[in-house]
Amino acid sequence: MLSAGALCLLTWLGVLIDRVLGEPQRWHPLVGFGRMAQALEQTLNPDLNVAGGRGVFIPRLLGVLAWLVMVGVPTACAVALVLLLPRPLAWLVHALLLWFALGAQSLTEHIRPIATALLAGDLPAARQLTARIVSRDLTDADEAAVARAAVESALENGNDAIFGALFWFALAAGPGALAFRLANTLDAMWGYRTPRLLHFGWAAARIDDGLNWIPARLTALGYALCGNARTAWHCWQTQAAAWDSPNAGPVMASGAGSLQVLCGGAARYHGVMEARPPLGQGVAPTGPDVSRAMTLVSRAMVLWLCVQTLLCVILLTH
């Protein structure tokens, strides 16, 4: 069990390692994890499921079992490791697990070049860079559509790649951050409402919603406090419920309101145009707003770390 002081110190250490090293460029553990998850899904969820040949219960049960294998086993190994190792090495493992779970530097490295391309008037490059991080079709998107996609991605991934990991690290140290990152990855792979994944990925989607419920609202609060708080709060309270995701809604509504830009609206996915509810308030985002979105995420992260440090100091002095 880590003390409040050790947890605070290791949080800063994990954030520092992420800032200096970013994500591994080669031999990334999540690449291997993703391949294993894909192979397991293809094995346990054959095409028979698409036709409904096994009903609902069996695919969902297999999805739960697959989730336990992919998340439960690595997390249990991490718990055993930090319990068996001597304290200095165990603390290092905690920090490295937080580094693994964090994606702050990676998010910056993906979003900032989009802003640079838009500011330079290089729309084709901006489209290509944005298409790497979103699932929507940007083939013929104009500047506003590209900037909107980038802003939305920055705000939503701020929760998934940063604040969710920090929250679960504060709650359950390294193994907690690891479990969150793996669960979030499975949701990104299995959580789609397609005929194939609707039932098999049900558990991955619902568990991720549960793990993200509190972090998403803390993220939304952080966005509000680091920008236009009144507009952020108004958008959060009036727009979030209309969004499909119970967690992305508060995060993106608050973030867009804080930035005073208008997001949401129509977007094309897999060749089909979807009419999404509006998010935020003001005008459509442009290149500078993409940079402002990342600045908002960074400020909220600093606020989180400062609040956590202050709480640790209070606990240590009482």
UniProtKB/TrEMBL annotation:
A Gene Ontology term for the protein's cellular component: plasma membrane
Q: Which residues cross the membrane?
A: 64-84, 91-108, 161-183, 296-316
Q: Which GO terms describe its biological process?
A: cobalamin biosynthetic process
| Domain of life of the source | Bacteria
Give the pathway: Cofactor biosynthesis; adenosylcobalamin biosynthesis
Q: Where in the cell is it found?
A: Cell membrane
Please list the GO terms describing molecular function: ABC-type vitamin B12 transporter activity; ligase activity; threonine-phosphate decarboxylase activity
Q: How does it sit in the membrane?
A: Multi-pass membrane protein
Q: Which UniProt keywords apply?
A: Cell membrane, Cobalamin biosynthesis, Ligase, Membrane, Transmembrane, Transmembrane helix
- Function of the molecule: Converts cobyric acid to cobinamide by the addition of aminopropanol on the F carboxylic group.
The family annotation for this protein states: Belongs to the CobD/CbiB family.
Output this protein's name.
Answer: Cobalamin biosynthesis protein CobD
Species the sequence originates in: Silvimonas terrae
